[in-house]
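Q: Protein A?
A:
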Amino acid sequence: MATTPEISVAARAKYEPVIGLEVHVQLLTVTKIFCSCSARFGALPNTNVCPVCLGLPGALPVLNRKAVEFAVLAAMALHCRINQTSIFARKNYFYPDLPKGYQISQYDKPLAEFGAIDITSSGSQKKIGITRLHLEEDAGKSLHEGFPDSAEKTAIDLNRSGVPLIEIVSGPEIASPDEAYEYLTRMKEIILYTGVSDCNMEEGSLRCDANVSVRPRGQRQFGTKTEIKNVNSFRFIRDALEYEIVRQIAVLESGGKITQETRLYNSAEGKTYSMRSKEEAHDYRYFPEPDLLPLVVDEKSHAEIRHSLPELPEARRKRMVADYGITDYDAEVLTASKTLADEFELAAKAAKNPKRVANLVQSELMGRLKAKGLEIASSPISMKGVALSADLVESGAISGKMLKDLYDLCFERNQDFPTIYENARPQQITDPAAIEKIIDEIIATNPKQLEQYRAGKKTVIGFFVGQVMKASKGQANPQMVNELLAKKLEPNA
């Protein structure tokens, strides 16, 4: 694996990085942006195509209304100003997977501008500006693998050509790879809450290009930037940025100059490679798309779309803390996805103690789901089941150990908690005489530990608690066990 170029701590401290991100998000429309072809992922190559998305002569684009509604909804969620009138433009370049020889996009008059995302950086809040959000069509896909007889072959799949995208461009305000990671995480979270995209990076529904430069610390003028393309995870974007920052500093420290170019990141090597020189806007020869009228989002449409805007993650976290008495950390975990937040709120409203529900979701449910590789939607234990289990523990009907055993059975048998509990019906032992009998037997068979306790080693009580719970098969009431043991272990007991 390649190593990052060597630079001294002093050299690193001399420079500061400037990072801007361009995020492409595929919209979850049924059809493509300018034709009626299916936008579904995974169809056989070149089957979801027509004269419009193939760019055949005489074919004319017709704008997909749903794509516009989704784009406006995303822009609202990102606190952007929606422009009442925006213009589509032709972005001219030539590549095998771009059948028309140009891409229909937006340039100087985008759909939305001046948004922002709040992130946490070094323990404090920071606002990262969004310069613009615009609509455009996706290109096709070049496939360079799967040809064992020749490394030179490339196949083209044009199913993706014409799938609707929004491009979200940040300001050059991101100051570290960690901030870039946080920005992308928050953006994805917000987009998922709106429901306009599934943000599946493996399927290409969310893609990110990163622009990065370095400059002497305190200098206002930007350095020469490079663009890193085709990175397929947020972690790799962070790693690629870290490598590229150090590489640029090493070049400058050795007396060299940074070349403005596009680079690819090889995650196996942890290294970026030059791909091609970087184009400027004028190289694309933008001009207004003659086959499409200006896009107008009037006040009525604006109001209708805003009405469908859901409660967003940050606002929901604050409300849940206030409504259910949970911590900020609890709320952060429980709003990681809209599905999880929705399910938790159903359980919290049904349970006697919402805080206990929050604890059980995090400590018992999420751990088991992660171990099994399952999402919350596939959990055998419903949130109704979590609420019931929380109430049983709250009332003392079952112990924490019994709950763990019941949860294990739920996952083992793929059955919900109410069913497992009804069949097992474990009962806590709350009769003091019965618990005292078990305690007496444990003390009698462990004289060494008794001697240690009475000699002042009070932590040994944990040993006795464990033995009593084991002997009772986890059914003894833990509070009573602790109280009775404390009395029994004293010298005059």
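Q: Protein B?
A:
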Amino acid sequence: MILAKLTFKEELCKGCGLCVNACPKKLLQLSRDRLNQKGHSPVEITEPEKCIGCAFCATMCPDCVITVEK
């Protein structure tokens, strides 16, 4: 059962990692094999079905890259 859905505006992500550190479930990581148009590793979710929708990641993101839907 998916509790929440995360979407990312990858083209705006600068790979700062603040969202990665904010996730209490440790579900976010910076991509290891992709770069966005600006040359940064964008954030991605490893196990979307485990997301609890707390939105800590979206709150920490200085560039409003993450949207959380419940």
